[in-house]
Give the backbone structure.
Amino acid sequence: MTLIPPQAPLRRSRLQRLTLSRRQQTLWVIGLCSLFLLGIILSTWIIGDTGLNPILAQRNQSPSLDHPFGTDWLGRDMLSRSLHGMSLSLRVGLLAATISAFIGSSLGLAAGTLGGWVDAVITWIVDVFFSLPHLVLLILIAFAVGGGTTGVVVAVALTHWTSLARVIRAEVLQVNSSDYVQLSHRLGRSPLWIARHHMIPHIIPQLLVGLILLFPHAILHEAALSFIGIGLSPHIPAIGIILAESMRHLSTGYWWLGVMPGVLLLLAVKAFDWLGENLRDLLDPKTSQG
Amino acid sequence: MRLNPIVRFAGSKLLRLGLLLLAVALFTFVLLSLSPIDPIQAYVGADMMLISPEQQELIAQRWGLDQPFLARLWDWLGQLLQGNLGISMVFNQPVIEVLANRFQASLQMLAIAWLISGILGLLLGIASGALEGSWIDRAIRLYAYTLASSPTFWVALLLLIVFSVSLKVTPICCAAPPGVLTEDVTIWQHLHHLLLPALTLSIIGIANITLHTRQKLIEVLHSDYVLFAQAQGERLWGIVRHHGFRNILLPALTLQFASLSELFGGSVLVEQVFAYPGLGEATVQAALRSDVPLLVGIVFFSALFVYIGNTIADLSYPIIDPRIRLGGNLEP
């Protein structure tokens, strides 16, 4: 009987050295997505006005190497226009989503910690918000505020906090009923101490991921409101307005006017989705070691 | 006295609906009275310059705008209870009539989209869950995740570009060919115009139900009773049919009825792109042209629509799931 010498498992194969571990993959995705989104937001300052001035000789060109997104009916470069619009939409979306996350987390914390009638009222408000189609609610609020940029920001901020409030409330209730918090109470710790040492470490990651996963919704809804004409004014070319303008030129066959800005919007939304999911994987102790 | 459980169930549902509508009414009223929009200016529009301050005063008096907040609210609620939603300024018709006409046009589109997205979503979810990890599963998931984050109006635009502009198989706008009277539109012309908007809505609606069905089916397939069925020699499709289907049908149905809210929102955008004269398009018109009565009417109507969807979902549980039926109690 011969002993089979152990061989392959000890030496790292070339393939293994090339592939990243799950954690490295997660970090790479987070880095690339952040870079991409930051690039879009900062692009307004980097490229400046190039491509935005009408050059009538270059009207209605289909996508080429010079103009990857083609040019519009005034000869403006669609790539720069889309980047400008996307940058604006991202900033509006980020502002609205951040306000929304703030409302959501405060109300969620209040409902979870104070309980009683506060909890009942907040839960009821959340239920009422869920009983209307989101877009109808957005239109109603944007209209009531008077439209424009303020209208969009207020409408998006006031309608996106509900699910985050639910998540935070559930999290607080769960932590509150756990053994170690009960024990802390018995040991005479003040509620503030418990909030600082037991609650905050649980809530912060939830809040962070919740905030980032709010962005795509906020941006999509901002674009939708601008698209139907209730959002940003037509003089500020947000991505929704660029798409709405392209509607008028569709029947003439200039497909890139509608397709390309939409692709950019889709990519930005996807980047936020990936960012949020990978960040959750990283922050959640159950998956972060995988 | 013990009431019949069904009567009690219906009673509690109606009570909740009443409370919900009251909440929506209060919310809308407070929101619109805080808003900077001047109702007189919204009504008169561009002719505002031609109206003297005295006349404005008269309009305000006639409408009761000089009354205190609570009196106005009370008046308005009283009118609402009598079913008076006011008169739409854009369409110059009672709001109830506009809602009825427009919803009739939207209903067929919504129904087709709802059915297609439900059935197709369920089938794709089953295929994806049963073949977990295969390329079919990957393709379906990629499709669902991509659509879940695409803007609705952009998908509508893409379909419009492909089918109406390039292939020229579907009409580019509206609910009927131009120059044809409403009475003369044949059922085929009607369906032809309905097809692409409905298809857009169903494509968008598929993502959610597919991903949930897939998740649920995978859960079922990893259960002990499926392991036992496998040990007895049952084939994959037999397991899906006998053990999976009933288990995934209930969450899928709940989700599909709950998606009425999304569907309604989607129809606003899709009708805007296809210029389809339905309720969604009326919503945009009402908001863009400051038609407050119509907008409020649509808000009420959409709340009712979503509520009915959720109630039907509640009612369907005992029919599908014998475990809920055995309890003998219809209330959760």
About this structure: Chain B touches chain A through 48 residues (CB under 8 Å). The mean pLDDT of chain B is 83.
